[in-house]
Amino acid sequence: MAKEILIVDDEADIRAILAGILEDEGYTVRQAADSEAARAAILERPPSLVVLDIWLVGSRLDGLQLLDLIVRDHPQVPVVMISGHGNIETAVSAIKRGAFDFIEKPFQTDRLLLIVERGIEIARLRRELADLRQRTVAGDEFIGASGHHGQLRQMVEKLGPASSRVFINGPQGAGKEVVARQIHAASPRAAGPFVVVTCAALAPESMELELFGTENPPADSPNGARRIGLFEQAHGGTLLLDEVADMPEETQGKIVRVLQEQRFCRVGGSTRVEVDVRVMATTSRDMEAAIATGRFRQDLFYRLNVVSLEVPALRQRREDITALAEYFMARAARLNGVSPRPLAADALAALQAYDWPGNVRQLRNVIDWVLIMGGGTPGSPVKAEMLPPEITSDAPQTLRLEGASELLGLPLREAREMFEREYLLAQVTRFGGNISRTAEFVGMERSALHRKLKSLGVVAEGRA
Ligand SMILES: Nc1ncnc2c1ncn2[C@@H]1O[C@H](COP(=O)(O)OP(=O)(O)OP(=O)(O)O)[C@@H](O)[C@H]1O
Fold first, then answer.
1. Where does ligand 1 bind, in terms of residues with CB under 6 Å?
2. Where are the 4-aspartylphosphate modifications (predicted)?
3. 320 shares its domain with 306
4. CB atoms within 10 A of CB 353
5. Domain of 197, in residue numbers
């Protein structure tokens, strides 16, 4: 995006000089002669930086008052003050009030350009830092080893540079937001914000306020509660409508218009705000049913669903489980300041055999839990018996202690058969039903394994 500077000065010739210098350097420039025009311009579209005269003769607010408003309402926009010769004290006080820097009249072109460039760069770095902080908390890696994961990666690479809207389907906790973040990170908007609207968590009455913000309060109300909406916060970046099927119907209609026009009015306001935002959406719901029952607008669905992606349930891509479990272990250990614990083979087999109704989020929670609560000495391997009971109670009997004692009550032939059945079922499940890979792991010929499974009455789900 072109970097845009707003010049606010009551003197037309000063504005013209500044505009000439900045345009020569490739900046786009807008101009305002007084505080009201400046506020309207910022409201319409926040610039990359404001150059603001300390004295705004004939204006409703002077430069310092306008500075206060910009710092309060648009803290992400750096402001460079223009001070006349001899009023350095005022310029210093402007910096204390939140200005980025000041330049003195008459201007030195080099200094002006240096300050402007630095102001924009520092604002960008601040945004990036905030985003990085957010990613550290949210987790930013995209881990996996399955074929499904590989396909998703390819889609991410293709969709990143495209500007198309993306609709991501999949069960809860499967990683839909992670995929959306990856697409954003692979896009030319990567340095811009990534803003998530949690549609399910917002009360219908506050939804529009959150999305579109409220209009500026009157200039003379110092505590006026102006709110910048999420659409505006996402300017230059990506807005993710998470669980979009939960969005109230009236808001759906408004979103259709915003997607059409790329601009909107704040709640209670009439200024048209232009935004440059890539919109993505996720759902774990059956959208066809939501549309058929009238709970979701078809026109909005068509607008959002330009490209659709499916993130499968974790049990449909079990080959991701080991990589994810090891990643979450390393991450939890780092966050807790302790050593990671290796996952013993029986623990990994149990994790791979479990069905994960809560998907990747549940796996992350289990690993977080086992690191701290699993018992055993710090840094020692995590065994299957240390996993939460719901994981091992679903696992094949061979992985359970009581399974072993049950085996002891049987004659050898039956015990062997039971063991073989459970063992092979666990292995086939673990390799996502892939018979060739299971055969390789257990050390059998593929055709021999097939025969064996048949004779034991094991029905392998998935690929043969
Ligand atoms: N491939 C992955 N690599 C690393 N972490 C992942 C991956 N997939 C999911 N996660 C982690 O699992 C958790 C759930 O992921 P995410 O929030 O993206 O799921 P979701 O499908 O958007 O969930 P919901 O439907 O509840 O909004 C997050 O902590 C995320 O970091």
1. 139, 141-144, 170, 172-178, 242, 282, 284, 360-361, 364
2. 53
3. no
4. 23
5. 154-312
**How many residues are recorded in the chain?**
464
Considering the domain architecture, whether residues 171 and 47 belong to the same structural domain is answered as: no
How many whole angstroms from 362 Cα to the centroid of ligand 1? Answer: 9
In a mutational test of the pocket of ligand 1, which residue from 177, 244, 366 has the highest number of ligand atoms less than 8 Å from its CB?
177
CATH number at residue 426: 1.10.10.60
User: Are the C-beta atoms of 424 and 353 separated by less than 8 Å?
Assistant: no
Domain holding 103: CATH number? Answer: 3.40.50.2300
Which ligand 1 atom is at minimum distance from the Cα of 144?
1
Q: What was the ipTM of the complex prediction?
A: 0.98
Greater confidence (385 vs 5) lies with 5
Distance between CA 101 and CA 95 in Å, rounded?
A: 6
**pTM for this prediction:** 0.67
One domain for residues 158 and 62: no
Closest CA to 47 of 109, 105, 106, 100: 100
Kindly report, residue by residue over 29-45, the tens digit of the pLDDT.
999 999 999 998 988 88
Residue 302 CA to ligand 1 centre (angstroms): 25
